# Entry
Amino acid sequence: MNVRDLLQEAAAGMLQRPARSALTALGTVLGVGTFVAVLGLTATTSSQIDARFNALTATEVAVEDTGGARPDLVPLSFPDDADARIEALDGARHAGVYWTVPLPGDETVRAAPVGDTGAGENVKVVAASPGVLAAAGPTLGQGRTFDRFHDDRREQVAVIGSAMAARLGVTSLETQPAVFIGGQPFTVIGIVSDVDRKPDLLLSVIIPAKAAKAIWGPPGEERARMIVSTELGAARQIAREAPLALDPAHADRFKAVPPPDPKQLRSSVSSDLDQLFLLLAGICLVIGAVGIANTTLVAVLERTGEIGLRRSLGARGRHITAQFLAESGALGLLGGLVGTSLGTITVVAVSFVREWTPVVHPATVAAAPAIGLLTGVMAGLYPAWRASRIEPVEALRR
# Structure
């Protein structure tokens, strides 16, 4: 029996019961299809992650005020000109210091005048140098943000997010509204509708850092931080230089946190997706293999007479083994080809809907049908062995 005979026998075996053959190959179709879709979608999303990551996160550095060895003696390590020192570094665009104002007691924020008996709002008040708003990339709904002039003169002005403005009842700046923070009036000069970074600012009342320090003192238990926006590719360098630029004598009082490496992030995300979805693909392949093995074993029992006739005409055990392995392998290969097509179509369809560029590695497309073939052959080993053990006389008696 040559290869051509084996292929003809395999095709005849599958075509005898086409519906059952199709259902048997379904598990392999799902497994291989999931395999191709997983690898394709992972490669496609990785390129999208790179693009988005580079746009914002890769250009942001956070500097924390640790206070050094005795933080209780140094409530605020950032110098008054911290913004200018960092912005003077090559690659830095904007930098600013901020902290949460520790309001004493039950002081709240309200839009009503002092003396009003209405209850105020327990909202977050952020003391920020002018560079914070510049680094955050605000989109102004009304008015403007405060600048270095306001900060140096300790002007009691405030910038609030649009949601916070609605909460406090500030709808327009034409009447020069004010918010009262624990009885201290701050004129609202700007309403921010959106920010590129630090979205929590939209839910805060932002006031100049020097005015906040003059009224409520330095930061409390929650120490100050700095946000730095950089040119693309300069973030890690800025993170190394920032502590020395802020205070060369006490660089240990600062901890600069650079953005994670985009390649590492992509690898991490890809690894998580690979592990999760390849597990699903493996389960589908196991189910498909069990289906092929079960169907092939039933076919062996149904075709016992045929096997006995072949053996009586001179066929040997290895010929019977090869015949059933060819059938199970053909089912696996068919399932692999269909699964590869469905997986590729899935990647293209998802990319089309999401407006992405589909990425499917040629090695994946080439290997997927081979995986289906291997699954089919492995699933047919036991039934083929059972078939080869059937004696001709015993088979013809049934």
Remarks:
- The mean pLDDT is 80.
- Residues 236 and 272 are 26 Å apart (CA to CA).
- DSSP finds 13 helices and eleven strands in the chain.
- The first helix runs from residue 3 to 16.
